[in-house]
Fold this sequence. Notes:
The protein is built from eight helices and no strands. It is mainly α.
Amino acid sequence: MIAYAVTLVLGLLSLESPADPIGDPYFSLLELLIIVMAPLMVIVMVAVHAYASPETRGYSLTALAFMVVLAGITSSVHFVILTVSRQIASAGFPWASFFFSFEWPSVAYALDILAWDVFFALSMLFAAPVFRTGRLERTVRVLMIASGVLSLLGLIGVPLADMGIRNIGILGYVGVGLVVFLLLGVVFGRARTVPEETG
């Protein structure tokens, strides 16, 4: 996720106007990173579910299910964009941009918003109750809630057809989400180093 965040920032800095889409090589690298990153995020949620106490396992299982849905949608979208979208566009079909571009409105863009602004957000919000003991876990919980809420707020850009507003969602799942995943690594690392009780 760090590599994705760095590439995204570089891609945004390369734009002449904030309304312009990110171009290559950043765009193709982002597509590839998302395809690699999505299964890893599912694995992190598997770890969250394994870490959850019995009374919070319903929440963690729901969070895992939402992350699986996110991974399925976003991997499919970005694999199609990376592999066939340019060939279809170069064939001269006038409707291609409405299906395969990341300029609003398009089917691919709408599906990716569904994946990240809805299912990622729900995954974070349902995972948050798992973390409730100690300062570090409470920090993870607060940041998960912030990540989920910001991601959901990105949906405001859809009815307004304003993808600049949708950047609020990107802040949620890239900016705050990155910190969440880093802290989860610390939480799980500490859990592994706790000595087992001897009977």
